[in-house]
Amino acid sequence: MNTLNSILLGLSLAVVGSSLAAAQESSSETASMPKVLQITREFIKPGKSGAVHDKSESAFVQAMVRSKFRTHYIALNSLTGKSRALYLTHYDSFESWEMDNKTVDKDKALSADLERASVADGELLDSMDSMVYTYEADLSYRPRADLSHARYMEISVFHVRLGHNGEWRKLVKMYRDGQEKGGTSAHWALFELAYGGDDGTWVLLSSDKSMADIDTGLKEDKQFRDAMGEEGMKKLDELYGATVENAHTELFSINPKQSYAPEEWVKADPEFWKPKPAAAAKPVAATEKKTTP
Fold first, then answer.
1. CA 107 from chain center: how many Å?
2. 50 exposed, middle or buried (CB, 10 Å; 0-12, 13-18, 19+)?
3. Is the CB of residue 105 less than 8 Å from the CB of residue 114?
């Protein structure tokens, strides 16, 4: 696959999404985007995902609820690639992250609950790791901080050649301008790796309300190409090849059972984030034994 097709596949799939009201994509939402993003990855053993892992992770959620912990997180389950779960935790600053760590240390009940949950959850995992990213507002495009009605998350990982950050920024802005000119429904939040991996790693996140949003994005690809023009696409292709060493995109579903969602999200869509338990089936009355006349 040539570099042009790579960027269209990676970015087009990553930025698609349904059109929301302009107010939802306003500067006020941009201002509310977190500055620091921690992504914890759990690689699940075969046969240990699904309901088994949901039950294990619920122990963490219940511990957070009991302690009324101030910081929330969202859980993602992989639909492509290796079986894994991602946990996205947002902070306003590194200081806020430190404050959370101190809170856990001081809360003995919470610490004990989390330790027990970790031991049990560890039995289901092959491995786990954690990375920390910082938000790049200038390179993001109509980002959505409110995920209350989101159901899927598309994540693209780009490894930029060392010493080419300037070209990378130019590339993203060129692509963003083409999406805006084409009038597409594209949107994304871009983060740069700070800790936990190789330098030059960037992660692009985009949410979808349904998989139909992906179809919409693919249909809008022509609008983007027309807006860029033949010469613009050629420049984009050349810049991408000179800047990006490799890239890939993965699709995840949002799992409310493993998420410690903000209360405002729960109120906005309670059926998804906090569904009512299914009503127990009524016991069937025993049939009276018939007697022989």
1. 29
2. exposed
3. no
Per-residue pLDDT of 48-79, as tens digits, reads 999 999 999 999 999 999 999 999 999 999 99
Q: What separation in angstroms does the CA of 266 have from each of 176, 210, 256, 271?
A: 32, 18, 10, 8
Per CATH, the number for 3-16+27-267 is 3.30.70.100
Indicate the domain borders of the chain.
Answer: 3-16+27-267
- Token pair of 82, please? 């290796």
Cα separations in angstroms, 40 against 88, 155, 162, 181, 292: 7, 14, 25, 36, 69
Which of 87-96, 203-212, 267-276 has the least mean pLDDT? Answer: 267-276
How much is the pTM? Answer: 0.84
> Which two structure tokens, joined as six digits, stand for 22?
């302009």
CB 134 within 8 A of CB 39: no
Half-sphere exposure of 220 (CA within 13 A, CB side): 25
